Structure formats: structure tokens, C-alpha cells
Amino acid sequence: MTFPDTPSQSPADIDWAGTAWQMSRYDEYAVEVALQLRETYGASRIDAITVGDENAGEVLRRAIGMGVDHGVRVQQSFDMFPSPFTIGGLLAAYAREKTYDLILCGVMSDDLMQGLVGSIIAGLLRWPSLTSVHTVDYRETSGVLRCEREVEGGRQEVLEVGLPTLLTIQSGIQAPRYPALSKLLRANQYPLEVLPAASLATPMGRQRVCAITPPERLRAGVMIEGTAESKARQLAKLLATKGLC
Does any domain span residue 144? Predict the structure, then answer.
């Protein structure tokens, strides 16, 4: 992305040309947990839902390539990063009309790292929720989920929660699977469900981005030129000057 030279600009002034759109790594962990639960405890339908314009469709196709059954895109265009309340409100409005037993979200986004959407969805649905979970097991006899998460000091916290519930997933023991070629081919041809945001009854947004200020440049880099031997001597002298060797 390209920021204008002036120190503070409207969010609409950012040039998004050439930006690669991809699924958040935390959302990939959430998809992986859903797939593992299905593989362990039997057949179930897994939907992947996102909010955005046509670019967001690539995120859904990635999820379908991993093994998700269906992709839903809530059509909404944004001038800039939408507030988590807007995203959470739209997703909660969609989920309210379904019969989901479990909703999994990434613990936070890769861009703003707000970590609020999952909790907002749970609050609007009036569901219990657990955050920052990395391991999930289903207790069939009691009908509860046994979840683990890391707390301060490296300790592991174990909690149980009944269904329906919402969990936000952090990086876990197992890395998200890479989509198989056959599933990627299916994902590229899969007709995504597109739902206009206006068709969902959602509360009004509560915040907006007024301006963006790029970080100030604190120091300039030093370019070392010459032969490999000359560069090595210059680097050694520079490190000695800085007291680093």
C-alpha cells in the first residue's frame, strides 16, 4: 500500500493497487480446528463467512480449498478498514437466522489486530464465548467442548463450555493444512453465496477512521558498496564504531 507524503491523510487516500488479499493466519487456524472437529466426531456442515467486496471472495476460496463446504460473502464495500462492530454486527445478523452449534473466529486480524469481532458476535447473539483458544475437544457424553488456552506465565488454562458457543482461535499445535489440488480446483469453480449487507438487520456503526499517520522515519539506512572483501571491512569497521563487536 502507498501512503501520501503528507503526515496525515484521509483513509480514502491510500492506494490499494497491487495489494494481495489473503486469509488471516488466525482465521486459517479457526478453519483447521473446524475441519479437525469434523474429522474426529463425524459429519457436519462447515460454512466460511466473510464481509467485503469481490476481493474477499479469494479468502472464501482458500477456505473451500482447505475443505470447507460452503462460502458466504456479505457484500459490503469499505473506503477503509471497517470497525469491528460493523463486521461483527453483519456476521451476527447472518448467524442469527441459522442453526449453528459452534462459531469459530480467528483471535484477531492480521492488519489491525483488534481482536474484537468474535466477542462482538457472541455478545449480539447472547452466546457464551471463550477467547484465545488453541486446543478444542468435544465431550460427546456431556455435550460440552473442552478447550485449552495459554495464560500468563506459560500456564495452560482448561475450560469447558456448552453448545452453542463461540470460540476465537489462536495459533495452535498443528499448522493449518495446505489445500489439496483437487479441492483448489473445486474452490475456483464453486459458486459463492453473495448476500447484500443491506438485507441484514444490523445496528449502526459506532466508530470511523478519521485519518492515518505513517510512522516517522527515525534513522536512515547505510548502503555499503564495493567488492565483497571491501564490504566486509567496511561492515566490521561500522560495527566496531557502534560498539557492536
Answer: yes
Does some domain include residue 163? yes
pTM over 0.85: no
Q: How confident is the model at residue 31 (pLDDT cuts 50, 70, 90)?
A: very high
Cα distance from N-terminal residue to C-terminal residue, the chain: 37
The predicted pLDDT at position 18 comes to 67
Residues counted in the chain: 245
Strand bridging mode 156-162 / 144-150: antiparallel
Three cell numbers written together for 103: 462459531
48: nearest Cα among 14, 25, 83, 73: 73
Distance (Å, rounded) from C-alpha 101 to C-alpha 241? Answer: 62
The neighbour count for residue 67, using CB atoms within 10 Å, is 18
7 pLDDT band (50/70/90 cuts)?
A: very low
Q: Would the pLDDT of 41 be above 70?
A: yes
Query: Residue 105, SS3?
Result: strand
The total domain count for the chain is: 1
Q: How far apart are CA 36 and CA 184, in angstroms?
A: 19
C-alpha cell at 187: 474452490
Residue-range definition of the domain harbouring residue 42: 11-199
* 36 within domain boundaries: yes
**Per the structure block, which three cell numbers stand in for 146?**
473442552
The CATH number covering residue 143 comes to: 3.40.50.620
CA atoms within 13 A on the CB side of 137: 8
Q: Minimal CA–CA distance to 137: which of 173, 176, 180?
A: 173
Average pLDDT over residues 163-180: 89
